[in-house]
Amino acid sequence: MPGLNGKWSSLIFVVWTVSCAFIFCEYLIYYPAIFQCAWPEMDRAPSGESRDREPVPILRALILSDTHLLGAIRGHWFDKLRREWQMERAFQTAMWLLRPEVVFILGDIFDEGKWSSTKNWDDDVRRFHKMFRHPRDTELIVLVGNHDVGFHSEMNWYKLQRFEKVFNVTSARMVTRKGVNFLLVNSVALHGDGCPICQTVESELLRLSQDLNCSLQQSMQAAPMAEDCSDARWLPFSRPVILQHYPLYRVSDATCTGQDATPPEHRHLLFKEQYDVLSQEASRKLLWWFQPRLILSGHTHSACEFLHANKYPEISVPSFSWRNRNNPSFILGSFSSASYMLSKCFLPEESTVITIYCSAGAAVLLLLLLLHLHTVRCTLQLAGCLLAKHKTV
């Protein structure tokens, strides 16, 4: 009976250890990580001498990038299961703890959107909506990336319109929330070679730039309205925040620092225009047309803070998936019409989860080994007793 009780105790220990490791690594680990994150605080007091005005409205936005949902061609089933579960649990935990008003995903939603058949595309979209489900009072806005519709040479109207129809977006769009203007840009189309999609996107961007300038003139009562402002769409005057997949032009990531920046051995690798970053010409156009107060981009899978022309800050948002980096993260932004503040929220590292599973496995194996040695010892002792009794007889 003591031996039997020992075996049952060992079995209970094994089941308990494995269960605890599984529940912690697959569910609970996201809560302490994201619970440490907080929205950056901004002063809501109205500017000026009047104290009777309403407090300044603050918009809370969560920004992530490069989810890269695997497809039917290159996606191994276990890789899909592991990485998509990680993103789903991280996103759902963030929704529950942080309650953002709007979520922006900066492109490369899918890994194989540029190759997907209709059937595979529908399956990828279904999985995306399951993973990134959100409360009704949270708005989800998705931008297009090169893996969603292909690089410039692979992009066509069919792929682009398929993406835009599913996510209710266009390639150039101004979204205004609580007086904050967010310019959503299909940066894949800013190739500057006169392709039909490129011409359409650039024309729409130029129109939006004119709308913004006309709104500025209208807000300045002393300034006469330009003749070409008669058909302009009125926008609350607020320098826009540009959201896009490709970063604006920079030579490399040499000046980028931080625990989620490009590894030091790769930071000095030169970027290729229109592949790693936008071209210099396209970057100059966006800065000249819109004079943004902030640019948020993805694509590189690593973090970077870069200042263009000494006055236009850009933040490159790292990938949200363990498939692209060991320490994914997302950005929390508090925005008003005149200001903003950002903070970064890190997800659990994949290496931490692997270490916990390995430690639990090692503990189970050690227990099984000790149990085996104990069994062998008891068997040898029993055999010795029987042999001694036989000799006595």
Structure keywords:
9 helices; elongated; single chain; 41% helix; 393 residues; alpha/beta
Characterize the structure shown.
With 393 residues, the protein is of the alpha/beta class. It contains nine helices and eleven strands. The chain has helices spanning 2-28, 30-35, 77-98, 118-131, 146-149, 157-167, 196-219, 280-290, 350-392; strands at residues 59-64, 102-105, 139-142, 172-177, 180-185, 241-243, 294-297, 304-308, 312-316, 329-335, 340-346. The strands form two sheets. A six-stranded mixed sheet has the order 4-5-6-7-9-8. A five-stranded mixed sheet has the order 3-2-1-10-11, with no helix packed on it. Helix 1 (2-28) runs antiparallel to helix 9 (350-392). The longest helix has 43 residues, at 350-392. It is elongated. The two termini are 28 Å apart. The relative contact order is 0.14. The model has no long low-confidence stretch (mean pLDDT 88).
What is this structure's SSE topology?
Blueprint (H helix, E strand, L loop, with lengths): L1 H27 L1 H6 L23 E6 L12 H22 L3 E4 L12 H14 L7 E4 L3 H4 L7 H11 L4 E6 L2 E6 L10 H24 L21 E3 L36 H11 L3 E4 L6 E5 L3 E5 L12 E7 L4 E7 L3 H43 L1
Parallel strand pairs: 1-2, 2-3, 5-6, 6-7, 7-9
Antiparallel strand pairs: 1-10, 4-5, 8-9, 10-11
Helix pairs in contact: 1-9
Q: Please list the strands of the largest sheet in the order they lie side by side.
A: 4-5-6-7-9-8
Radius of gyration: 28 Å
* SSE order, one letter for each helix or strand: HHEHEHEHHEEHEHEEEEEH
Principal-axes geometry comes out as: elongated
Proportion of residues in helical segments: 40-55%
> Regions with pLDDT < 50 over 5+ consecutive residues?
none
